From TrEMBL:
Origin: domain of life: Bacteria
Organism listed in the record: Flavobacterium hungaricum
Keyword Signal found: yes
The Peptidase M16 C-terminal domain, residue ranges: 207-379, 680-858
Pfam families: Peptidase_M16 (PF00675), Peptidase_M16_C (PF05193)
Name the UniProt record assigns to this protein: Insulinase family protein
Entry's family note: Belongs to the peptidase M16 family.
PROSITE patterns documented for this protein: INSULINASE (PS00143)
Amino acid sequence: MKKTIFLGFCSLAFCTLISAQEKNNNFKKIKELGGIEEYLYQPNGMNILLLQDNASPVATVQIVYRVGSKNEVIGNTGSTHLLEHLMFKGTASFNKKNGNTITDVLQNTGAQLNATTWYDRTNYFETLPSDKIGLALQIEADRMRNSLLLKEDKEAEMTVVRNEFERGENDPNSLLDKEIWASAYIAHPYHHSTIGWKSDIEKAPIEVLRNFYNTYYWPDNATLTIIGDFKKENVFALIETYFGKITKAPNPMPQPYTEEPQQYGPRKIVVKKPGELGVINKAYKIPGALHEDLPALNILGEIIGSGPSAILNKTFVDTRLGIYAYANATNFKEVGLFTIGVGFPTTSKHEDIDAKINEVVAKIQKEGVTQDEINRVVAEISTQTILSRDGSGVIASGLNEAIASGDWTDYVTGVDRLKKVTPADVLRVAQKYLVEDQSTTGYFIPKQSGESKAQDQADANHFMPENGPFYYRDSNHNHNEEPSGNLIAAHTAILNENKMEAESDLLIEKSASAFKREKIAGIDVVSVKTAAKDFVTVAASISAGNFANETKNAIIPSLTASMLSKGTTLNDKFKFSQKLQKLGVKLNVSASTTKINIGFKCLKKDLDEVVSLLAEELRNPLFDAKEFENLKQQYTGNTQQSLNDPGERGSIALSQAIYPKGNPNYDLSVETNLENIKNATLDEVKAFHKKYFGPASMHLVIVGDTEGANLNACLKKHFKNWTGGVAENLKFEEAVKANSKTEVITIPEKPSAELFIGQYTGLKRADADYIPFYIANYTLGAGFAGRLMQTVRDNDGLTYSISSGIGGNIQTGGYWFVNASFNPNLFQKGLDATMVQVDKWVKDGITAQELENKKSNLIGSFKVGMSTTAGMSRTILSFIERGLEPDYIQQYPKDIEKVTLQQVNNAVKKYIQLDKMIIIKAGSLDKDGNPLK
């Protein structure tokens, strides 16, 4: 009976309802641009954006509320974000009591769902099979005005959000960024971060939140976006059905009117906390996103801060003054900051870096930039704009930010605005806005572990990719995942390779056209044509054979892959990167001790040129000695950062407790990694490249608009006579299930501590028990519908993030684990609550209803994943790496469907022993696991 409540209506609505547009003219067309149609639903003032694409049976439904943290005042900061969480807690129709929570109902269709909060907006979205559009609209309409907002839910969710806040406080860049904005804007409500001040999170009464909800969450303050596979007349009918009963807001919605007063001199803030790097962020005030000067400021940020040719990289990274450098302009609706950031090692001083940044700014203000530099940036952004529109979910995300900026059409016209920028424009905005008296400079001065609070030390290291910092202000606060902005965590160890592979299995196009598989230039090539227009995605890999078990320096594969982008024998790194920039392409090559991963996305017309550059990079790297030393410094900085990372330290300790040193799943300690980086030589890198780079074990998958792309001809031409590589299999020392163990890793002054629970299972991806155990684990800890999230987070309010997974290299015996974050004062309570669920899972198994729900979830996700070329290419690659044929995508849903309840529950009891649990606690905890005082 419950299913008919929320599933039975969709086909009825599509079949019987008449187009509201034709019947009563409630839908007024406003404009159309770039294939996107804008309508006004006149009965209640809701804006509607429609982008129809019937190539795949997938759609994204998104509702954007024009309310964000800028609408908050002192005392209720963080209300928008806390409401975002509470609006998942339930409505009169969808709630836990009825057994049909919003997350359960949506995830059982295979939907990908989330919500994010930012300064100018809040959005809720779900990408799901297109025959479930009606379900998504029903849910969004229901929570628009019927969210329960119960006091008991608020009390539980408050501690969840507080833990999210604490996790952000763990990161030095996040902390520094928050302080800079609070100092730069003393009056404007952008002054406080979206997540709010801790005391407001803890103390805001439910009445305040309800009042905020009843003020802003109305249709005339919202834009409904539907992208993907639908018929317009059916969508109009569904909107009429579910939103037609909702009226306009009964009162005018108050808008912030506070303007930032004139700044009369430079401001400076200093943050001193444990860390392993020195950081300077220098921020200058700029206008809002739609201001005529923003395109020039965005281009300026790219020119001085992105890529090997960027002035900041030449000034700081190439000279080894800094580990990373970046520049960017925010694109908020009202005001913003142009930020220049540098992270640096012990050999550099804050004052010296600050002075160098000022020199860079002065040079730009005197000399400006060239037309060629602008052309490269515009070409790159133009192509990336096309390539990024791979799936309805990504398009919805882009529209979300354009809506927030004040004009959705900027999503379509933004590139045209960039194309009008001249060198004179860039020079003018540099001189106008990069003014010292309008700046706020932040210093992060790290204290190393064990120092007293009075001691200040700025000798630290931190690696950053060339394209940006560890933390961007533009990261969104999400409901049930990590922030979706540019968070970059360059971990040296892969915690969960098998889990990632299993999740990528959900990104498969069941109805994909026939696969082509053939050997070309010695490479195993699979080609799949999809409905993507004018672009292709390539995923490839090369086996590292038995390198992982040869007791060699484990950092060499990663260093080798990173050196490939540092120049070739034909083009130095500047010329090479500029060629890629003009094509708008990023060649991604990375390596672990077991394989080399390669990937890129490009326009179909550029495939030959991109393959040519890929071949040049793979076959003819320059291996310059100076670049190698620079790279080692960057790796050292990255690894040193891990010393103060509870998650990284905890995951390493778990792997070491489960596996012997001779096993590929054994992660080296931070100290060992630092020693390996120090001892690595360029000769070792060259030897690794010579032995392992070649076609012998290379697989390549191309997905997208492959017809006429002429990949075969490209590979034959550019990889002709390429030899090398290995075909040997990985050998390793087998692990055995270890005895129970508890270990504490003490890291002072971390507001959020990490818990790891795990044990060896020995399961390999090809084992018959793997899928049954995977379904069992999925029930326990995968996503918001997992038991752990629904209890330890949702009911108990003890954590922002908790999950369980299957780890380990796909060729070796794997392991099972749980990972969660807790405030140190709630750590033991969190551990106890987690173990209650684990005990119940092992002893009682899962229920028949849970099994059916998870099967529906996993199989439904196939439809969702089929709309992206990236997901399909990675998934097919993972199949052929395991020796399967590409058409296994047809069999995978059947393998899920045929699993029985007995197989699932037997697998849990077979592989998990409650008396063999390994528990790792990392953070501000003493040797007994109690909070540090």
